Amino acid sequence: KLPENITIIEVGPRDGLQNEKNFVPTETKKEFILRLKDSGIREMELTSFVSPKWVPQMQDAGDIVESCLTSGSRDFVLAPNERGLQRVYETDCRAVAVFVGVSNTFNQKNINKTTEDALTGLEPLVTQLKDRGYFVRACISTAFYCPYEGKIAPEDTLALCNRFADMGVDELSVADTVGRANPLEAHALFTLLKSELPGLLLTAHFHDTRKMALANILASMQAGVDRFDSSAGGLGGCPFAPGATGNVATEDVVFMAEEMGVKTGIDLEKLSQAIDVVKPFISRPVESGYYRLYELN
Ligand code: HMG
Ligand code: MG
């Protein structure tokens, strides 16, 4: 059984661009974001308040947030620490994404902290955000596999999800950071998380390194998931997950879902036009199935 509707959380402006070596002009990012919204996207990660030394592409985060927040849309920014939250509080943004991996080694590479130190640091920050009425999303990296540690046990992923549930987050975005999971693993983990964490919004975040993301999304839908992170044009990758390619392409997810009668509310033509805006600045080809055909026509 499939859901009637799914919600796409567009992560292109954040996950999609953070790994691009050449700086994408701020005005281009803004037009990309506004066109994505115009295509029907209602939830989006706009940018990250992370260290500009670690992720130079996100150095214009304050400017992006100031220009791109709109009513009727849930606009997230990522924040890794207290400094990131201070930057959030200087804006009108009301939705924050925090992030930690299940794998200790990944956390050391990505945020220079062990898993436990990261959680200890985030706990008071999440409490403060909730006290102030923010929507909080926790992104759980390396939920299936780690590029350094290999296979991750589902119980370890569940344990980390439970820590965030106890902190009172609104949403968990559970990620196959390196695009290594298969559909049976996706179905099993999301079935487990759905049954153990019934009160939380549960979102699946698949990278498409091995071209299994669409199959994983279908399997996750069958496990009851109706929220999916994806990136227009399939852009993206984490600078600290070597070998991982982009997120599953939003247009491919929308096409698959709509063909199966699952509504997304997203206009594929307008979505493709949003990709047209950013494509000249992207260093690798945009190779999603849907967009390739769009370009031919
Ligand atoms: P650190 O070097 O250990 O931090 O980095 P620090 O506290 O020692 O600070 C060093 C300097 O950075 C200081 O400046 C701080 O002020 C500054 P200095 O005194 O040297 O001039 N700084 C900041 N500046 C702006 N904003 C901030 C901030 N924090 C410190 N928030 C840190 C630790 C966490 C900051 C760093 O490791 C970092 O920024 N990491 C982020 C990495 C990242 O963005 N990764 C990608 C996002 S996660 C992802 O893609 C996975 C996901 O898609 C799901 C999946 O697919 O798995 C979500
Ligand atoms: Mg990601």
SSE blueprint and pairings:
Blueprint: E1 7-10, H1 12-18, H2 26-38, E2 43-48, H3 61-68, E3 74-78, H4 82-89, E4 95-101, H5 104-111, H6 115-131, E5 135-141, E6 145-146, E7 150-151, H7 154-167, E8 171-176, H8 183-196, E9 201-206, H9 213-222, E10 227-230, H10 250-259, H11 268-278, H12 289-296
Parallel strand pairs: 1-2, 1-10, 2-3, 3-4, 4-5, 5-8, 8-9, 9-10
Antiparallel strand pairs: 6-7
The structure holds 3-hydroxy-3-methylglutaryl-coenzyme A (HMG) and magnesium ion (MG).
Residues 15, 18, 48-51, 53-55, 78, 80-81, 83-84, 87, 99, 110-112, 139, 141, 175, 177, 205, 207, 238, 240 line the site of 3-hydroxy-3-methylglutaryl-coenzyme A.
Class by helix and strand content? alpha/beta
Kindly state the percentage of residues in helix: 40-55%
Total count of strands: 10
State the end-to-end distance.
34 Å
Stretches with pLDDT under 50, minimum 5 residues: none
Instruction: Summarize the biggest pleated sheet.
Output: 8 strands, parallel, barrel
Protein name: Hydroxymethylglutaryl-CoA lyase
Keywords: Lyase, Metal-binding
Family: Belongs to the HMG-CoA lyase family.
InterPro entries: Aldolase_TIM, HMGL, PYR_CT
Task: Write a concise keyword list for the protein shown above.
two-stranded antiparallel ribbon; binds 3-hydroxy-3-methylglutaryl-coenzyme A; 12 helices; 297 residues; eight-stranded parallel β-barrel; alpha/beta; single chain; binds magnesium ion; 16% strand; globular
